[in-house]
Amino acid sequence: MSGPQVVPKPLLAVLKGERQSVPPMWLMRQAGRYLPEYRALRARKGGFLELVYDSAAAAEVTIQPLRRFGFDGAILFSDILIVPYAMGQDLWFEAGEGPRLAPILAETDLGALKPDFGRFEAVYETVRQVKAALDPAVTFLGFAGSPWTVATYMVAGQGSKDQGAARRLAYGDPARFGAIIDAIAEATVVYLDGQIRAGVEAVQLFDSWAGSLAPLQFERWVIEPNARIVEKVKALHPDVPVIGFPKGAGAKLADYARGTGVDAVGVDETVDPHWADRALPEGLPVQGNLDPLALIAGGEAVEQAVDTIRAAFANRPHIMNLGHGILPDTPIDHVAALISYVRERETA
Ligand code: 1CP
User: Fold this and answer.
1) Can you give the residue ranges of the Uroporphyrinogen decarboxylase (URO-D) domain (predicted)?
2) Mean pLDDT of the chain
3) Which of 313, 324, 343, 344 could be joined to 318 by an S-S link, Cβ 3.0–4.6 Å?
4) 324 marked among binding-site residues
C-alpha cells in the first residue's frame, strides 16, 4: 500500500531554501502580450479589466505560457492596480496607453474612497480554477504590488517616468502619504490572504519603482511597509514563501532583504549577480536576473548572461528569471531556447 503520491515542486523547494542543480524557471509577466494566444483572447474580451474579471478567461491566460513552455511556476493573471480598485478608486485602461486611476490629489480625502473588497472575489475564483487545472509539479504564485509602487499610480493616476507626484507628496505631507501607504498595506494583506486561501503556494511583492527613492525614503516607504506585510502574511500563513522584488534597489538590496524578512529576493538586471551574491545573506534564495533585452537579442547574448548568473548564484538557492517583465516584442523561439539552454546544464 502506498500513501498519497508527493510530487516534487522544484520552484517551491528553492523558495524554501533548497538548492537545485538545475534552477527552476518562470518569467515575470509570462502571461501577456508577447503570446499570440494571449492577444487573441484579449481582443475577444475587449479590454484588460474584462479579462481579469472573467475568471475562466483569466485562468486560461495564466495557464497559456505553461502549456507552451512548461515553466516551473505559474503566475496568477491579474494586475497590481486591482488593489486601488478594491480600495474604491476608479480604474480603467486607455487603449494603447495603459492603466488610469482617478488620481488622489492633495485636496482629496483618502477617507472619501469607499473600499469594496468584493472586487477581489473574481481573482480568488481565478485562483481556484487555475489550481484545479495546474500540473502538480508547477508552483502557483500569487502577487501584489508593494505599497510604494501602488501609491505612485494612486497619486498620479497613471504611470510616470520619475514617480514625481508621489515623491513630492511623500516629502511634502508625509502624514497624508503615510496614511495612503498604510491603507494599501492593509488591503494588500487582505488580498494576499485571499489568494493563499484560494490556492496560491507563494506570493511575490512587486516594487517596480523602488529605485526612484533616496535612502531614507526607501527605508520608510519600501522596507518598512513591506516588512509589515511580510509579518502579517507570515502570521496567517507561516509556510507560504514571500518573494520581494525591489526593482532598482541597487546597493540597498541587502538592507531590503534583511529589513523586510522576505524569503527570497528578486534581483533586476542592472545588478551584478556576483555582487548580489556577496551582499545578500548566505543561503537566501534569489530570483533573476537576465536582461529582458538579452532575451530579445537571443543566441549568445542569452547564453553568456545565463552562464554568468548561474556561476554567481551557484552556492545558493536560485530561480532563473528575468530582471524585469518579458517585453511584448520578445520572439517566442527565444523563450523556448532559453528554457532548453538552462535545463540541459547542471550547476557543478
Ligand atoms: O493591454 C494589455 O493586454 C494589458 C497589459 C497588462 C498585462 C498583461 C497589464 C496592464 N497588466 C498585465 C498583467 C500583469 N501585471 C501581471 C500578471 C501576468 C504576468 O505576470 O504574467 C502582473 C504580475 C502585473 C504586474 C504589474 N502591473 C506591475 C509590476 C510589474 C512590472 O512589470 O513592473 C506594474 C507596474 C503594473 C501596472 C501596469 N499594468 C498594465 C500596464 C501596462 C502597467 C504599467 C503601466 C505604467 O507603468 O505606465
Assistant:
1) 24-33, 141-157
2) 95
3) 313
4) yes
Beta bridge partners of 320: 25, 288
- Read off the pLDDT band of 111 (50, 70, 90): confident
**How large is the greatest C-alpha to C-alpha distance in the chain, in angstroms?**
68
Of 5 and 64, the structure prediction assigns the larger pLDDT to 64
Cell of 245: 522584488
Ligand 1 centre distance from Cα of residue 49 (Å)? 11
Atom nearest to 51 CA in ligand 1: 3
The ipTM (two decimal places) reads 0.92
Q: For residue 348, is pLDDT > 90?
A: no
Catalytic residues: 29, 33, 42, 79, 153
pTM score, two decimals?
A: 0.96
Tell me how far the alpha carbon of residue 79 lies from the centroid of ligand 1, in angstroms: 6
Residue 52: CB within 6 Å of ligand 1? no
User: Closest Cα partner for 263 from 201, 309, 197, 209?
Assistant: 201
For 10-343, CATH gives 3.20.20.210
pLDDT at 177: 94
pLDDT of residue 5: 74
Local structure of 142: helix, strand or coil? strand
Which of 267, 280, 195 has its CA nearest to residue 236?
A: 195
